[in-house]
Amino acid sequence: MRVHDIAFANFICKFGEQNLLDFVVEIVIPAFRETGVIRRYADTDYRFINVSLLNIGSDEEPNFAITGRFVKNTVLRRSQVLISEHEIAHDEAAIQSAPSSFFVLLLGNHRLIYFAETANAPDTISFARAAAAAIRDKHKVFIRNRKIELRSSNQTATLTSLMAQFPAPEVTVVPLTSEMSIDAFVTKYSKLQSVVFRLIRPNSEIQGSDLWRSVRTAGAAARSQQTAVSYKNPDGLNKSQTASQIKQAAETGQQIVTLSGKDRSGNSLKGNNEEFRLSVPLRDVPPRPRALAKRLVRVFQDLVGRGEIRLPRPEHDPRAAMERISRENLQ
């Protein structure tokens, strides 16, 4: 992801059959606001900083977003340098580096706006892993606190029964795609041999077209843990028809689409939503986080208005959850 490019995704967080907004106060907001180092690998750790709640609605009808920075805190090391045109020398050195991305998580429609602030900024895949880890940690805290509350009122409570009542979270971040990017990527194939549509259980929203709703319903009736539809032809699929179906499937961010085949040189070529995601540049970047968040929201709203981002209709009105956040005075 290039510096100062904005990407967009569907942030799906499920607690069994319940959704992000069902635990937004108890788990989701604290996961971003009250977490230190989330993941650590050798000299590198990931963390959320400068996290706040932004009301992008009004006082009468609040509509909240979580905003903040996702930081990759690391050490850059070298072992040698070039000292002449034909000579290198051993020279060890290290320097601290903390590339970052700025994010806006729109709680009302659970869409993620993701902005690379620096070179080598952590990508949405790293963000998804860190968010999932943070939310899982806060879910464990919620379960423990719930057990204490129940036992203090002389009610029976076990971790097993509470986990059955409040299942562990599953977080999936699905990039929103661009029709032009899909067309451009499909044309790279001389032979498109396989397309797999993996259906993701969405948050509380209408689930795409009639076809995909039927597939989800059938999968749920069969108690399928993972549902997918695949097209395969070693001699090559119809690229035009396949591209049209990929656009329809990927536009709402409810499916991960994986393509494979051969490029024009006969080499294997694979891709998914990451390769044809919607991405737009941002110029004149506001220096203050609040101003940047508002600017990113305006860009998102403009894309929705132009039809480049499609928002499925929610199954449940999010206003009750927004009013609850407001009442809790979490800002």
Write up what this structure looks like.
Helix content is 32%, strand content 35%. With 331 residues, the chain is α+β, with helices and mostly antiparallel strands. The strands form 2 sheets. Strands 1, 2, 3, 4, 5, 6, 7, 8, 9 and 14 form a 10-stranded antiparallel beta sheet that branches. Helix 1 crosses helix 2 (124-152). The longest helix is centred in the middle third of the chain and has 29 residues, at 124-152.
Summarize the structure.
This protein is of the alpha+beta class.
Layout of helices and strands:
Blueprint: E1 5-15, E2 18-19, H1 24-33, E3 37-41, E4 44-55, E5 64-84, E6 87-97, E7 100-106, E8 111-116, H2 124-152, H3 159-165, E9 169-175, H4 179-186, E10 189-199, H5 210-221, E11 227-232, H6 239-250, E12 255-263, E13 268-271, E14 279-281, H7 289-305, H8 319-328
Antiparallel strand pairs: 1-2, 1-8, 1-9, 1-14, 3-4, 4-5, 5-6, 5-7, 7-8, 10-11, 10-12, 12-13
Sum up the overall morphology in one term: globular
Number of strands: 14
* Beta-strand content: 25-35%
Order of helices and strands: EEHEEEEEEHHEHEHEHEEEHH
Average pLDDT reading: 90
The DSSP helix count reads 8
Question: Biggest β-sheet: count, sense, barrel?
Answer: 10 strands, antiparallel
Task: Compute the separation of the termini in Å.
Answer: 31 Å
Radius of gyration: 22 Å
Regions with pLDDT < 50 over 5+ consecutive residues?
Answer: none
Q: Helices and strands: which structural class? A: alpha+beta
Helix content: 25-40%
